[in-house]
Design brief:
Helix content: 10-25%
Largest sheet: 4 strands, mixed
Number of domains: 3
CATH class of the largest domain: Alpha Beta
Shape: flat
Number of helices: 3
CATH superfamily of the largest domain: D-Ala-D-Ala carboxypeptidase C, peptidase S13
Oligomer: single chain
Structural class: alpha/beta
């Protein structure tokens, strides 16, 4: 049975890119043997298939009606539009929380008559500790959006984008632009290539992270 099922999988290998590696196992819950077993014992990174396990664990542990609660809480009395105390932003790890959500919360605070804060802004991320990266993650994936460090405080998926513009003169560094509301500093070491330059096939764009949310773009572009 397994050999009969494995043959169709091999037929699809011709549609994969050169150098692709495939391992596949399909087994019905409660069954003693798999329906499809194609290199099923081969070690491989789970990649996005891990989302199935994560989603199932969340459903079983939290339940279908669970909702993340991100709140702004006041610690003090309000007098003449001034909060005499701290404002606590309590984050709960909501992966969908955005800058627009934060704006809406601040707008709701103003509607309650608070226009000034005479105290501290406290960011509470104590609901859980984050693990910035997992063992086995490829180093060249760490600057990708899908590898953004998880944490209790998540805004716009803890990811941002920039715009890169080639210089007018070949050999000069390209220009990088980032929206002012992002708390990050970008530096460009990206070399602008001439239209007929053949160097492009030997160089690609890369991101080198630094300290205090600083990043350097390297490589080349036309």
């Amino acid at each position: 049975m397994l050999q009969a099922q494995a043959a169709p999988v091999e037929e699809y290998m011709q549609y994969l890119p050169d150098g692709a590696n495939l391992a596949l196992m399909v087994q019905k819950v409660g069954a003693s043997t798999p329906t499809i077993d194609y290199h099923g014992k081969q070690m491989a990174l789970p990649a996005s298939t891990m989302k199935v396990i994560t989603a199932l664990a969340a459903l079983l542990e939290l339940g279908p009606d669970f909702r993340f609660q991100t709140t702004l809480e006041t610690k003090g009395a309000v007098s003449d539009g001034t909060l005499n105390g701290d404002l606590v932003a309590r984050f709960a790890g909501d992966p969908t929380f955005s800058r627009q959500d934060l704006r809406n919360m601040v707008a709701a605070l103003k509607k309650q008559g608070i226009n000034h804060i005479k105290g501290n802004l406290v960011i509470d991320t104590s609901v859980f500790a984050s693990h910035d990266m997992a063992p086995g993650w490829p180093c060249n994936d760490l600057t990708q959006c899908f590898s953004a460090p998880p944490g209790a405080a998540i805004v716009d998926k803890n990811c941002f984008s920039v715009s890169l513009y080639s210089a007018n003169t070949p050999g000069e560094n390209a220009f990088v632009r980032i929206a002012s509301y992002y708390p990050a500093h970008m530096f460009s070491q990206v070399r602008t290539l001439g239209r007929n330059s053949g160097d492009g096939q030997y160089c690609e764009l890369d991101v080198v992270p630094g300290e205090l949310n600083s990043y350097t773009l390297t490589g080349c572009m036309r």
